[in-house]
Amino acid sequence: MLKLGFLPPPPFSTSKTLKSHSNPSSFSPCLRSGRRVGRTGGELGQGLGSRPPASVSAGAAVEAPAVEGGGGRGKGTGEEYDAIVIGSGIGGLVAGTQLAAKGARVLVLEKYLIPGGSSGYYERDGFTFDVGSSVMFGFSDKGNLNLITQALEAVGRRMEVVPDPTTVHFHLPDDLSVLVHREYSEFIAELISKFPHEKEGINKFYGECWKIFNALNSLELKSLEEPIYLFGQFLKKPLECLTLAYYLPQNAGNIARKFIKDPKLLNFIDAECFIVSTVNALQTPMINASMVLCDRHFGGINYPVGGVGGIAKALANGLVDKGSLILYKANVTNVILEQGKAVGVRLADGREFFSKTVISNATRWDTFGKLVKVDDLPEDEKNFQRIYVKAPSFLSIHMGVKASVLPPDTDCHHFILEDDWAKLEVPYGSIFLSIPTVLDSSLAPEGHHILHIFTTSCIEDWKGLSVKDYEAKKEIVADKIIKRLESKLFPGLKSSIVFKEVGTPKTHRRFLARNNGTYGPMPRNIPKGLLGMPFNTTAIDGLYCVGDSCFPGQGVIAVAFSGVMCAHRVAADLGFEKRSPILDTALLGLLKWFRTIA
Ligand SMILES: NC(=O)c1ccc[n+]([C@@H]2O[C@H](COP(=O)([O-])OP(=O)(O)OC[C@H]3O[C@@H](n4cnc5c(N)ncnc54)[C@H](O)[C@@H]3O)[C@@H](O)[C@H]2O)c1
Ligand SMILES: CC(C)=CCC/C(C)=C/C=C/C(C)=C/C=C/C(C)=C/C=C/C=C(C)/C=C/C=C(C)/C=C/C=C(\C)CCC=C(C)C
Question: In what ranges is there compositional bias, type Polar residues (predicted)?
Answer without folding.
Answer: 13-28
